[in-house]
Each structure stands twice: as structure tokens, then as C-alpha cells.
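On clarity, I found the account of how folds are encoded harder to follow than it need be. Since the whole study asks how a given chain folds, the encoding of that fold should be made plain. For illustration, here is how one protein appears when written out as sequence plus C-alpha cells:
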Amino acid sequence: MPKLDKHPDAATVTARVAQLPHLSMEQLWSLWDDRFDERPGHHQRVWLESRLAYRMQERAFGGLKPSVRKQLEEIGQTGLLPRAMRRDANRLLPGTMLTRVFDDVEHRVLVRGPNDFEYDGRRYTSLTAIACHIAGTRWSGPAFFGLTTKERA
């Protein structure tokens, strides 16, 4: 784990990170050599800048907690997200457009945020309310729009 700087100043660290894109490659490599034991096998500038920025912040403010690092390593090895993270990964991002053809009519729903959907010019707090409105009967909104997985079923 990298050593911590004695007295980190957020403004100074921010200024140093903001300066990285303006440095020459020679200057970037000098910073790299000061902060890492060996150089990477490639020379992609944006990647170098991002790793340097992370290391600078890590030295100033500390790195990941060991429990978080362990969890990320397990995800990297297995490719499987823990159950709580899978739920978060399944959340719909604002701007997502859901479509469903029902009774030969295409219905479009815009996700505006958590519990905020727009359908046919009206705002709704759930997909279930929209599905019930469209179908005229009780429906699970996620099921109606095809968002449920076999694992959930």
C-alpha cells in the first residue's frame, strides 16, 4: 500500500491532478517512476494520467478499505457481483426509454429518475402504475416491461 503524504491539502491535490493532461510524456513518466515500482507494458496517455491521478489521491487521502479491496478482487476473479450490487446494477438510469408493444400499440416510458417515470405526457411513481393503466388490469411493471430475470422469477 502506498505511503500517505503527511498533510494533504485537497486544493493542492486537485491542482496537481488537473495539471496532468498538460504535462509532457517525459514529465508523466517522471511522476510515474516516483509513484510506482515498474512501468506498464503500454504507453497510453489517458490511462497513465488516470492511474497517476488515483495514486496521487490515494497517497493524500488513503486508499480503499481492505474489505472493499477484497470484494473488488473477488468480483474480478469470479465476474459475479454480490447480490446487493446486482440489485443496484439493475436500477434504471435516467434517460432510459422502455418500450412495450401491447394490443398492437407501442408504448414508450421515459425513466426520469428513481420512482419517476413519464408515459404519454404524464408522470408516474412506478412502472406498475403504468402497466396497470396500459393493460387495464393488475400487472407487475417490471414484468410488463420485460425487466425481470429468470433468477428473480
About this structure: The radius of gyration is 24 Å. The beta strands are 97-102, 105-113, 116-119, 122-124. The chain has a mean pLDDT of 87.
